[in-house]
Write a structure and sequence with these properties.
The chain is α/β, with parallel strands linked by helices. It folds into 2 domains: about 230 residues, 3-Layer(aba) Sandwich (Rossmann fold), CATH 3.40.50.2000; about 180 residues, Rossmann fold (3-Layer(aba) Sandwich), CATH 3.40.50.2000. It is built from 19 helices and 13 strands. The longest helix has 21 residues. The radius of gyration is 22 Å and the shape is globular. About 40% of the residues are buried.
């Protein structure tokens, strides 16, 4: 039925029947917790949805109604003629004085009214304050005092890079959020210092990472396997990483080359070791899937090996749980893997670091397995039992505390407590 109503939503919007499309949205909203409490409309997105699962499991004081974000994207595509040029970074520079913005806002005001009338929610919860599809909806909510909360799932970059990234990441953005929950003190400081319109110190709350609550309280135990069966490579774009980590053009080319090669080495290893399964974990977006498809084609691996598989539907947690080793770079998935007790593999780029570190763990080299060459990777994997570094639990918690605030499994409770406190305060005003 979901596919049918999704199609009906698309067709009604294509015909310009906004009210009808909004009513199909109401049908498409999924109630993911069922209690007679305050209702939260969640603008869902992968990864962020995992944070919401943490809220439901560990907070359990609010009801959540899930509306996938991509349905809102359709309105931008319908009413903005230059939507292909539009992204989260350039929304306000391009739309601020555009007559098409007034048209989009009017439509989103109507959509929001119908959603609110039919679903009767108390507030909105999103995974970012910058999404282009959210801006006019947020303005419509703010106009009638419906609170907007954001669990900011971005900003997890090495602490040494925060001061270099403020202007690059936030120079063109605005926030309409009532409160923004962030993972750590570094992110709070960066958002505050960036002087983003709508963000002040008093509407930033440091809470940790809600989805990590599920890991910290998981009873699943990691056994140190004697043999290697499955490797998970969390795929990334070397160019996307360089946008916010590399501060000069001096070593940019070498940096991107090394990241490209790092991922290629895993394909090379799997192609020579057919008893090893290589899982390439990527995001579900069309751009990500297209990117991995081109990557595989360039490497000559398209449909060539049965033991190399692309996975976009499973969550990062699911992939981590079933894998023996997790490979990636500057990603929260590596933090998740460490909390599960899984060994991680990263590229060693310390020789390219001119100003500060590219990596979460440069100050704790013993926490991960660093790879400088193809030979060093092959030797490590061939001697899995004897050479691989499994994370020490105490060292992991000590290393992760600056990144995830408190390693206590209570992030979800902190979020829900602040939301309820805000809603109660608004009610009493």
């Amino acid at each position: 039925m979901f596919k049918l109503f999704s199609l009906l939503h698309y067709l009604s919007l294509k015909l310009g029947l906004v009210d009808l499309s909004a009513n199909f949205l109401v049908i498409l909203v999924k109630r993911i917790s069922k209690n007679n409490r305050r209702k939260v409309l969640v603008l869902g997105k992968p990864v962020f949805n995992e944070d919401v699962k943490g809220l439901i499991s560990e907070g359990n004081k609010l009801d959540y109604l899930l509306l996938p974000k991509f349905f809102l994207d359709r309105y931008v595509e319908k009413y903005v003629s230059f939507h292909k040029k539009l992204n989260d970074a350039n929304y306000w520079p391009l739309m601020a004085n555009s007559p098409e913005r007034a048209k989009l806002r009017k439509k989103m005001e109507r959509v929001f009214k119908i959603l609110l009338d039919k679903l009767n929610f108390d507030c909105i919860l999103a995974g970012n304050f910058v999404y282009k599809s959210h801006q006019e909806l947020f303005i419509a909510a703010k106009a009638i005092n419906i609170p907007i909360f954001v669990i900011y799932k971005e900003g997890m970059i090495p602490p040494d890079r925060f001061h270099l990234s403020k202007e690059r990441l936030y120079g063109t953005k605005k926030s309409f959020a009532s409160m923004i929950f962030v993972y750590n003190e570094y992110i709070a400081s960066m958002l505050s210092d960036a002087k983003i319109p709508g963000i002040k110190k008093n509407n930033l709350e440091i809470v940790g990472i809600p989805r990590f609550d599920l890991i910290l309280k998981s009873e699943k135990k990691v056994s140190k396997r004697k043999s290697l069966k499955k490797i998970a490579l969390f795929f990334f774009s070397e160019k996307n990483k360089s946008k916010y980590l590399v501060d000069s053009s001096e070593n940019l080319e070498e940096y991107e080359k090394r990241l490209y090669e790092f991922q290629k080495w895993f394909f090379d290893y799997a192609s020579l070791n057919k008893d090893i399964e290589l899982i390439i974990k990527t995001k579900t977006s069309a751009s990500e899937l297209n990117q991995i498809s081109k990557y595989l084609k360039n490497l000559g691996y398209k449909n060539s090996f049965n033991n190399i598989k692309v996975e976009s539907k499973k969550t990062s947690i699911e992939v981590i749980e079933e894998s023996d080793i997790i490979a990636g770079y500057s990603s929260t998935t590596l933090l998740e893997a460490l909390l599960y007790g899984k060994p991680i593999i990263e590229p060693d780029l310390t020789d390219l670091e001119k100003i500060g570190s590219f990596n979460y763990f440069d100050n704790n080299a013993n926490i991960s397995n660093r790879i400088i060459s193809k030979n060093s990777l092959f030797e490590l994997l061939d001697s899995f039992k004897n050479q691989i570094k499994f994370p020490d639990n105490d060292l992991v918690k000590k290393s992760l505390k600056p990144l995830i605030y408190q390693v206590d499994g209570n992030s979800s409770r902190r979020v829900e407590s602040k939301i309820i406190q805000f809603l109660e305060g608004s009610k009493n005003e």
